[in-house]
Amino acid sequence: MWITRDEFRDIATKGIWKQNTSLVQILGLCPLLAVTTNLVNGVMLSLATLLVMALSNFAVSSLRHFIPYEIRIPVFILIAAALVTVVDLLMNAYLHGLYVVLGIFIPLIITNCIVLARIEAFAAKNPPVQAASDGAMMGVGMLWTLALIGALREILGSGTLFSGIDLVIPGAQPLQLLPADYPGLLLAILPPGAFIVLGCIIAVKNWIDARQAERALKQANPLIAGGCQ
Amino acid sequence: MPANPAIPLTDQLCDVIVSSETPNTLTQSPYLVQPVSVTRIMLKVLLALLPGIAIYTWLFGPGILVQLLLATTTAVIAEAVFLRLRNRPLQPALSDLSAVVTAWLIALSFPPLGPWWLIVLGSAFAIIVAKHLYGGLGQNPFNPAMVAYALCIVSFPAIMSQWPHPLSAGGLSPTDQITAIFLPERIDAWAGATPLDHLKTTLRLATGNDNLTVQNILRDHTIYGVGGGNGWEWVTLAWLIGGLWLVQQKVITWHIPMALIAGMGSIALGFWIVDPLHYANPLFHILGGATLLGAFFIATDPVSGATTPRGKLIFAAAIGVLAYLIRVFGAFPDGIAFAVLILNMCVPLIDMYTQPPIFGEKSRGSNA
Asked: Model confidence at B180, in pLDDT bands (50, 70, 90)?
């Protein structure tokens, strides 16, 4: 019933790196384009999604033996939608300022294909603890990617970092990284900027993977690798 | 090298510069047709731009020369760095001059007294993102120079809309121009809108005012000249001369320039006939803004433009019409860049439907 160390490590590397939702599966681009105009928005939306994914994976996995196979998709959606409503109401109550900024994208978490994809591909076939870890780790993968995209777009676009942090931590001030007269590259804030930044991050990830594969090949068989050069 | 009457002077000039292609013994006929190389084409494009640049410098001061230098340096460095990163040989791609053509077109479409970082950013973005990320010369679906223009007009609309007056009409002195480029905070007001932009905003403010017709605005403000902007009409005429020389040299065909001018001219004519008080005449639109530079030098990019003869006509006429609509009804000072980028997207479709029939085939329909 419990989860072993190796199992968890496998789930974590898949969620954070190998099957990263934004960089490998390229899922959930709509919130990615719309809310990663700064770091705080990206992080907070990812946290909300992470919570929904972990909870819904857990719930579906616990109920997986009782859900009729033929109508599983509507049932999955209902379960996830109930949890999204919970998160939506919680944010409205405790982080109202941020709730207003993120707006429609909180309820829209339910339409995010990542949520349903993980339920269908993982939670419906695995025990609850594994399913919950999978949801959480996929969320962490999304979290760091959206945080990185948000941070890059914010620095390029307005020269600040953590703007809007006072909506989460009252009284906190954003950092002014670039000089105050920095004109701001508006393109980075606009949706094309998100595509370009995402493309560059995917390229860097593929480059790191290719280098690792090359190194592994060399270690496994130094003769072949040497001959190839 | 001895002057050879059988070869046009400009080709000999190209040979001097592209010395690697020149055979050592070039004396007697019959001559073989020399292979057309990328370097030769690019060199001719650069030569064709020279008269325009000379008039530009003469009328508006040396700022443009500084911008050309900045753009060229940035583009060549960016090209070299990215060729290196992509493990490509440096020499062939650097000496084909395509990066220099891109850089010159960027410098010529940007405001000549913009701050130095603007042109550096634009040139680097054009070479790195619009050219090398798509696979280098011959692979880019979008015109790199226009991508740079679009990036900067979208990101910095205020700076990109400030154009200088000619030297004769209160423009900045040469030393002040250099200061404006490198230390923009030292110079206060020096620039205004382009004639196209000014006409548009003045007409928008004029709703209900019967005195503010196009004719009166053109007469009352010194930024307008004989046929377009004051001073700019001579620069655009020089683009026309350089462009016609390119057509004569068979570097470009007549299709794109003619269709672009015809497209812009006919839609401008339509609006002008219906309401001459509020729409400028076709000549103003053809000589104003970047129409002629775009028609002969930008839309004719062989990589990102249409390739079939009929396709070229459709491609360029659509650019003309779209550019008119954007510059007259849109928010940006000129529409050539966006029109070219949008039509770049349509090129695969246009080329697919305008394939000329193979020799002997009657028509596509009867064969299918």
From this structure: confident
B155 vs A185: CB contact, 8 Å cut-off?
yes
* Domain range enclosing B130: 9-19+36-354
How many contacts (CB atoms, under 8 Å) link A and B? 15
The count of structural domains within chain B is: 1
The residue behind tokens 């379960």 is A79
User: Does the beta-carbon distance from B156 to A186 stay under 8 Å?
Assistant: yes
**Tens digits of residue pLDDT in B61-103:** 888 999 999 999 999 999 999 999 888 888 887 888 899 999 9
What distance in Å separates residue A218's CA from the closest CA in chain B?
20
Within-domain flag for B1: no
Provide the percentage of residues in chain B whose pLDDT is more than 90.
42
Residue B367 belongs to some domain of the structure: no
What are A28-78's pLDDT values in tens digits? 888 888 888 889 999 999 999 999 999 999 999 999 999 999 999 999 999
Q: State the Cα–Cα distance between residues A194 and A34, nearest whole angstrom.
A: 8
> Any idea what DSSP says for residue A28?
-
Would an 8 Å CB–CB cutoff place A210 in contact with chain B? no
Nearest chain A residue to B129, by CA: A196
Q: What whole-number distance in Å separates Cα of residue A32 and Cα of residue A224?
A: 42
Altogether, the residues listed in chain B come to a count of 368
Tell me, yes or no, if A184 comes closer than 8 A to chain B by beta carbon: yes
Partner B contacted by A113 (CB < 8 A): no
Indicate whether this model's pTM tops 0.90: no
- Count Cβ atoms within 10 A of the Cβ of residue B338 and give its class: 0-12 exposed, 13-18 middle, 19 or more buried: buried
Domain ranges, ordered by start, for chain A:
5-217
What own/partner pairs with CB < 8 Å and gap ≥ 24 does A135-138 have? A135/A50, A135/A53, A135/A54, A135/A55, A135/A56, A135/A57, A135/A58, A136/A15, A136/A50, A136/A53, A136/A54, A137/A11, A137/A12, A137/A14, A137/A15, A137/A16, A138/A15, A138/A19, A138/A21, A138/A53, A138/A114
B151 contacts A190? CB cut-off 8 A? no
Beta bridge partners of B192: B163
This model of the complex carries an ipTM of 0.76
Any domain includes B30 = no
pLDDT, tens only, B273-321:
998 888 888 888 888 878 899 999 999 998 899 989 999 999 999 999 9
Using the beta-carbon criterion (under 8 Å), do A187 and B155 form an inter-chain contact?
yes
